[in-house]
Amino acid sequence: GEEAFVTADRLVRKDGTGIVAFAGTVRAWQGGESVEAGELEISGDGQGMRAGGGVSAALVLPAAAAGPERHVEIGGGTMAFSAANRALAFEGRSYVQLSGARLEARSVSAVLAPGARAVVSLSARTDVVLSKGRYEGRGAAAAYVAASDRLVLTGKPVLTDGKGAAARGDKLTFDLADDKILLENEGQGRTTTVVKS
Predict the structure, then answer these.
(1) Which of 197, 195, 131 is nearest to 169 (CA)?
(2) Cβ distance 62 to 120 under 8 Å?
(3) How distant is the alpha carbon of residue 172 from its chain centre?
(4) The pTM is what?
(5) Whose C-alpha in 35, 81, 132, 178 is 20 to 30 A from the C-alpha of 94?
């Protein structure tokens, strides 16, 4: 029910398909959210969107308990949005910029809240790197839940501190709300290490 706006160098209406395509320095926005890309296609029914040529999206996270509205920036080589499952998928070298932390991976997906545009969760796959202050975590996959404000790395994660020290585990959690990092090992040698970041 809210108007959306798009600016671009060129507009092309693809006859018979209902698709509207924009190219060259594209910026689309609705409320406080925006997408910038080299090219953007919107389906005729408004239920899908594709973007390419380097994409960045500025989105909202649900406010923490009695806290202010938070924001997240997500980018990648390409982006696809499906209104049916409320999902955004970024491919190519992708990134997520949260308050105080940056995640990079080959692909990033975001799920939006039903009936709203706020991002409720994120996932990342392949060559995941998470940087927070002097600490860096690397793993095969990552997941973020906005309600808990935690980023969890899995797939044999490694934590380094920028001074040459490294620790390995089964699960690496960056608690952004409490400014802590937890490294857990499962099985017989089960241990948990907590680092104040």
Answers:
(1) 195
(2) yes
(3) 18
(4) 0.87
(5) 178
Distance CA 68, CA 31 (A): 17
**CA–CA gap between residue 139 and residue 164 (Å, rounded):** 18
Residue 71 tokens, joined? 């924001």
C-beta separation of 57 from 71 below 8 A: no
3-state SS track over 10-28: EEEEECCCCEEEEEEEEEE
* Tokens found for residue 141: 């996959």
Asked if residues 122 and 96 have their Cβ atoms less than 8 Å apart, the reply is yes
